């Protein structure tokens, strides 16, 4: 006897494209899910990686599922540490401070290369006005630390 | 111990959303009289005093666009017909139409709450109910909404919650009352909660995220079935929303929560069943429970019984019913529940309150109670409710039904 011998029951077909309605207003269940995940985001995800999405503006299933997707991914990334980690910025690495560090590094490199400080000043200005780039660098460092900590946590003791 | 129980390696629970027993399975009584469904004469008064009878006129989508009330005060109205809390109050299941009228349906629209599905309209659920075991007396754990009811499946309690408010379980709470996943892991057994995908996710991720090993998506469930890596205990959550798929496709909500398309859920149930059914070794060593978290405000004719209090009290402010401090001593409304295994005889009907001499009453605390009993013999961490709950694996017998006797669903 194999599965081929099994009596077959046909699942009813329906027009799935017609049934699909991601713009349906969210139910109280999904509203509650948003509240839970928003709370978890604030509890677990480091400040700099939070979405800053106002969940009160999420009215449809499409909007809600997009937010839920983002937060679920973030919770998987940061949740294993158990609590909100302080981001690089919170730990004292404000954009200005990071920019200053970059300045010193660039100045040293420029001096070694015999270049003028004009380029250095321009870079400093750019760096201090570009928190996005600074954040991106810091994000990578933060992620590496999270991974390293997670690896250490998963090692048998 | 039966042969079916000796061979059992996996318990899989699929928990759907918000449909009552009578709404989904009530129509089976006509052909299968042992199933405690509808006679066709059950009725409720509407707000104007007109009699509204049950009717096999439920449709897949559009009829329940106004979400029926299933919060504690709404369910209290449904069960007690609007009688205020006080001594001598008797449950009569006469407030469903009145309750639905409060949701903005209009008088005529409120009658839809009495509709049920003709069995042929949802062939997967009704086939499984008649091919394996159907429970006449499986009730939601609380006469209230989703979150607190689902908590009973994970913890055996809702920690005193009866509403949809933030449900956060602290480490200290879980040290005293661990989830079934933690219990199994601590006992050297495997457990996983399979949520559909990240845009659908799961509420439990908030409480259990520290241990990522407990979570996977439904795609992984399929892969684990094929690779032989299915854990001892699996809990599956359906897709809770219509949303775009990763490849740009369209994913339909499969939870059957009103007003999601009911056939999408029927198809999802078939896909879970088929994943197990097609692998002979898995099929013979797995028990699949399909159950709904609560009734979703939809009509059922059976009065919920009293139960073992679980040691918590929800104050009047939380219940929203004047004068009622709820002691978790009464169950919620009846929901569909079906147990599938090739060791279950076709047409098994587990008697409920319709058969007082033989009745067996189940609720969601029966899930951790059963899994604990099966995989963690001697473990004593359950709540009073869980310890008092009926377990269901004794339904597996000695006789293995051949492949030619166990259905397969063609998509």
Describe it for me?
The complex is a heterodimer of chains A (157) and B (411). Chain A is mostly helical and 157 residues long. Chain A has two domains: 19-81, no CATH class; 95-154, no CATH class. In chain A, 61% of the residues lie in helices and 2% in strands. Chain A contains six helices and one strand. The longest helix of chain A has 24 residues, at 131-154. Chain B has one domain: 3-Layer(aba) Sandwich (Alkaline Phosphatase, subunit A). Chain B has helices spanning 3-7, 21-25, 72-80, 96-101, 106-109, 123-131, 146-155, 171-176, 180-186, 205-208, 218-227, 262-277, 280-284, 316-319, 366-375, 384-388; strands spanning 10-16, 43-45, 51-53, 133-135, 191-195, 215-217, 233-236, 243-244, 250-251, 286-292, 337-340, 348-350, 408-410. The longest helix of chain B has 16 residues, at 262-277. The two termini of chain B are 36 Å apart. Chains A and B meet through strand 1, helix 1, helix 2 and helix 3 of A and helix 6, strand 8, helix 12 and strand 13 of B. Strand 1 of chain A pairs parallel with strand 13 of chain B, so a sheet runs across the interface.
Q: Give the fraction of residues assigned to helices of chain A.
A: 55-70%
What structural class should be given to the helix and strand makeup of chain A? Answer: mainly alpha
Beta-strand residue fraction of chain B: 5-15%
What is the element string of chain A, with H for helices and E for strands? Answer: EHHHHHH
Percent range of helical residues of chain B: 25-40%
Counting DSSP H or I runs of 4 or more residues, the number of helices of chain A is 6
Provide the domain count of chain B: 1
Instruction: Specify the biggest β-sheet of chain B.
Output: 8 strands, mixed
The chain-level mean pLDDT of chain B equals 96
Total beta strand runs of chain A: 1
Biggest interface: A-B, 48 and 57 residues
Termini Cα gap of chain B: 36 Å
The total domain count of chain A is: 2
How large, in whole angstroms, is the Cα Rg of chain A?
25 Å
Could you say what the CATH architecture of chain B is?
3-Layer(aba) Sandwich
Q: Order of strands side by side in the largest beta sheet of chain B?
A: 6-5-7-1-10-11-4-12
Q: Quick one: overall form of chain B?
A: globular
Overall mean pLDDT of chain A stands at: 68
What is the number of helical segments of chain B per DSSP (H or I, 4+ residues)? 16
Query: What are the low-pLDDT stretches of chain B, counting only 5+ consecutive residues below 50?
Result: none
């Amino acid at each position: 006897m194999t599965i081929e011998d099994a009596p077959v029951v046909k699942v009813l077909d329906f027009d799935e494209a017609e049934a699909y309605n991601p713009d349906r207003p969210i139910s109280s269940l999904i509203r509650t899910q948003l509240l839970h995940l928003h709370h978890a985001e604030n509890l677990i995800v480091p400040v700099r990686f939070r979405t800053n999405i106002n969940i009160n503006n999420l009215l449809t299933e499409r909007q809600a599922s997009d937010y839920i997707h983002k937060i679920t991914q973030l919770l998987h990334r940061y949740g294993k540490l158990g609590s909100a980690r302080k981001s690089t910025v919170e730990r004292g690495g404000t954009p200005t401070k990071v920019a200053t560090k970059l300045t010193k590094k660039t100045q040293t490199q420029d001096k070694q290369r015999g270049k003028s400080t004009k380029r250095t000043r321009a870079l400093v200005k750019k760096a201090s006005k570009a928190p996005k780039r600074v954040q991106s660098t810091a994000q990578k460092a933060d992620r590496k630390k999270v991974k390293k900590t997670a690896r250490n946590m998963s090692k048998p003791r | 111990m039966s042969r079916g129980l000796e061979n059992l390696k996996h318990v899989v629970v699929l928990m759907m959303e918000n449909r009552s027993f009578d709404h989904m399975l009530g129509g089976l009584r006509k052909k299968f009289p042992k199933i405690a469904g509808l006679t066709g004469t059950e009725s409720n008064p509407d707000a104007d005093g007109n009699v509204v009878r049950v009717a096999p006129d439920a449709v897949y989508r559009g009829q329940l666009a106004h979400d029926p009330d299933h919060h504690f005060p709404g369910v209290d109205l449904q069960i007690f017909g609007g009688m205020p809390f006080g001594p001598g109050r008797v449950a009569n299941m006469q407030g469903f139409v009145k309750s639905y009228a409060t949701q903005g349906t209009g008088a005529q629209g409120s009658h839809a709450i009495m509709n049920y599905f003709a069995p042929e309209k949802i062939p997967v659920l009704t086939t499984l109910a008649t091919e394996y075991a159907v429970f006449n007396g499986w009730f939601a754990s609380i006469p209230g909404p989703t979150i607190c009811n689902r908590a009973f499946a994970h913890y055996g309690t809702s920690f005193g919650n009866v509403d949809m408010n933030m449900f956060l379980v602290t480490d200290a709470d879980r040290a005293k009352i661990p989830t079934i996943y933690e219990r199994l892991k601590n006992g050297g057994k495997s457990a996983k909660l399979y949520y559909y995908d990240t845009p659908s996710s799961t509420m439990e991720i908030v409480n259990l995220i520290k241990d990522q090993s407990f979570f996977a998506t439904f795609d992984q469930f399929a892969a684990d079935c094929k690779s032989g890596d299915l854990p001892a205990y699996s809990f599956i959550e359906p897709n809770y929303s219509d949303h775009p798929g990763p490849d740009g496709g369209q994913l339909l909500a499969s939870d059957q929560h009103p007003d999601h398309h009911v056939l999408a859920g029927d198809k999802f149930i078939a896909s879970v069943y088929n994943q197990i059914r097609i692998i002979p070794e898995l099929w013979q060593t797995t028990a699949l429970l399909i159950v709904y978290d609560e009734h979703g405000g939809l009509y059922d004719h059976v009065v919920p019984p009293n139960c073992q209090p679980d040691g918590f009290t929800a104050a009047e402010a939380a219940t929203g019913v004047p004068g009622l401090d709820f002691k978790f001593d009464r169950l919620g409304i009846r929901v569909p529940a079906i147990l599938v295994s090739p060791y279950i005889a076709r047409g098994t009907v587990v008697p409920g309150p319709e058969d007082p001499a033989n009745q067996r009453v189940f609720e969601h605390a029966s899930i951790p109670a059963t899994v604990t009993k099966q995989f963690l013999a001697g473990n004593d961490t359950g709540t009073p409710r869980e310890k008092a709950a009926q377990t269901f694996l004794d339904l597996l017998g000695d006789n293995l039904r051949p492949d030619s006797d166990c259905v397969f669903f063609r998509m």
